[in-house]
Amino acid sequence: MSFDVYKIRNHFPILRDKIYGKPLVYLDNGATTQKPLPVIECINAIHRHGNSSIHRGVHYLSDQATDAYEKARQIVQQFIHAKHSHEIIFTSGTTASINGLAFSFGERYIHEGDEIIITEMEHHANIVPWQMLCERKNTKLKVIPFNDDGILQLDEMEKMINKKTRLVAVIHASNTLATINPVKSIVSLAHKYNIPVIIDGAQSVPHIPIDVQEMDCDFFVFSGHKMYGPTGIGILYGKEKWLSDMPPFQGGGEMVDVVTFEKTTYNQLPYKFEAGTMNYVGAIGLGRAVEFILSAGQENIIRHEHDLLKYAVGRLDELGYITLYGRAPEKTSIVSFNIWDVHPYDAGMVLDKMGIAVRTGTHCAQTVMQHYGIEGNIRASFALYNTSEEIDYMVEGIKKVKSMFSG
Ligand code: PLP
Question: For the chain: N or C, fewer Cβ within 10 A?
Fold first, then answer.
């Protein structure tokens, strides 16, 4: 399938906008991606002609909305190659999925004195819920370190595992270093000791094909808004054996079977974990986003983003005054860097005035910044619609920043 980035860009109306009179150069895709017309129009069409609460009514609109919602579940199931559609739980995003797991999995399987392993490169969403669980249950968090190139030290993981280890929770692709971690090896090592593994796929799903069965992970979580879908929708995938056994993390309508004042029994999977009126508009929009990714071609996306990454690293390196964080051989399309003698916020503000959106700060990964002893950095994260011309423009901006702030 051929891939024409300029044709792809036509699907994204916002990319034609001007910021301070300059063309928008949107390089903050790690935070959230822009939305293509099929997703925008799908959401619009639901609100105009298809809106109704799902799983509730016998009327036409409710049936239509329910069918579309359940179809979206199947689209996601096929996209990540889950065995069953009832292993796909809709949540409001990665953060909600991990918090849900920390509650449900934690309630059932984590006890005083147990241990949970994470990595030094986690997003706060995969640190804080576990710390909160540790406080509740008096358990301990252990951390697999990474080296200065941003590569996990997996030999340390095996040393950390012991009889008290109950769970490993790992970021698939780092939102700061861009490292794609060898999750298959991590899962097989953990499984050797019968320890389940949660993979945070927030930064991998938009960029690389996912096969949860091949990975053999126990749980996999991600967000719709980082993969061209709507905000407020995300996925918690879990193997059936775990989801059937775990208690729900929220109580309310629809997640129940029989409710009496004495006792409540719960609905079957996946509804046991979908309490209240779900974000069906978001779920259906997410289904459209998946179809958009598939129509662009995942191989094309990999190739294009890989070219962008290589080009950006080359252009930054040739400047001679850039420190780049994360040089793992397997990376997604993110460059994290600092300009020597320039505060990242100053750089971000100058770039902003040129119409360039980059992220500055700690990117919800303070422990990564602590590793390098820095307060923060600049992150340019590329999506399938970015171009090498945009990278050239960013480099022009960096030169301007450098001349303004350090002579
Ligand atoms: N995990 C990673 C790796 C992320 O990059 C992010 C968002 O930046 C999250 C989790 C949290 O995602 P959300 O804010 O969509 O819940």
Answer: C
